Amino acid sequence: MGFFSWNTSDTKKSIPSHYTDKTLVPVTMKDDQGNTWFEDMYEGYGEFGGKDYYELVDEMNGGTGDRDRGVKLFHPPTLCDPKQYGADAKINILQDDGEYKAHTIEEYNKITQAFLDAMPEVVKVPILVEDDTIGWSAEGRPEVCKYQGYWY
What we know:
By secondary structure, this protein is α+β, with helices and mostly antiparallel strands. It has a domain at 1-52 and 126-152. It contains three helices and seven strands; from the N terminus they run ββββααββαβ. Strands 2-1-7 form a three-stranded antiparallel β-sheet, with no helix packed on it. Helix 1 crosses helix 2. The chain is elongated. The protein starts with 26 loop residues before the first strand and ends in a 23-residue tail after the last strand. The mean pLDDT is 92.
């Protein structure tokens, strides 16, 4: 897995990983229940103060901390246009047991549509702030950093 990061919700600064030579940005991750996780040495893999960002997305939306579901809630999947694939095309989907299973485009679209239909109308996500006095709000959704906390 490569590095990934966000820009802070309040200052819009990239949150660099500690592996880069950029000045580190201490941040606090906050959920809608008032919980906070402080991180001053972000490693670049989505954990703040020992809490995984995407697991928290899942929890904030009624889940049990399923990281894969949290990723899909934050980055919703799209349906495939069967016209762009051959008749025998398959898409591999990671299963709960950690194995991949090949699905036809039709099967993939059915599974994806079911996920999209079950998504909350409004997906709640943690905010990432430099100013820890700022309270959580739905408008604070952090943007994905185009530099991924490293390359800039």
